[in-house]
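Researcher: I'd like a structural prediction for the single chain below. Treat it as a standalone chain; there are no partners to consider.
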Amino acid sequence: MGYEEALDRIDRGISSMKIEFERFFAGGLKLPPEELRQRLQQEFRVLRNANINSAAENFRLGSLEGRYNSINELLNRRLREREEGRPAVVREVRPRYDAESGITLGATPELEAVEALFAGMYRASGNTQVDLDSFHNYLRQQISGIRAKTGCDAVQFRVAVEDGKPRLKAKPIAGG
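Model: Treating it as a single chain, here is the predicted structure.
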């Protein structure tokens, strides 16, 4: 079993779990999709016990686990509210970083921000020729070069689709 395939399966499973729970809360399903949640927990358990040597795969597993836990907590809260008869307040789960809106990076970019840009650039297109570490090094070089040229404090990167292909756009951000 390839770790990348297992991580992709978990990623799809988390999205499916969220959709199925939304269907349940909207009345489209009679029972919550607990079997899907249990399957994801089992897959996380198996991968946590596996010997993953790639830093990128370990990082992605941690990111997926964090995403799963935050969605799972939200779903548990909504189930409790429903059981207690309180009206459910719809809360939108937004990612901390959005590659399409733009992510501002300083001299030392946060790994979560790099992962979001990486996902925006390569996961959607299915490109497997670039790994997260190479992309992180590329971003550091770009930030260093742009900061040296413009004297800016940070650089905002965003992913734009041009001619059907994702492109990374950079914009210097002055400090304030």
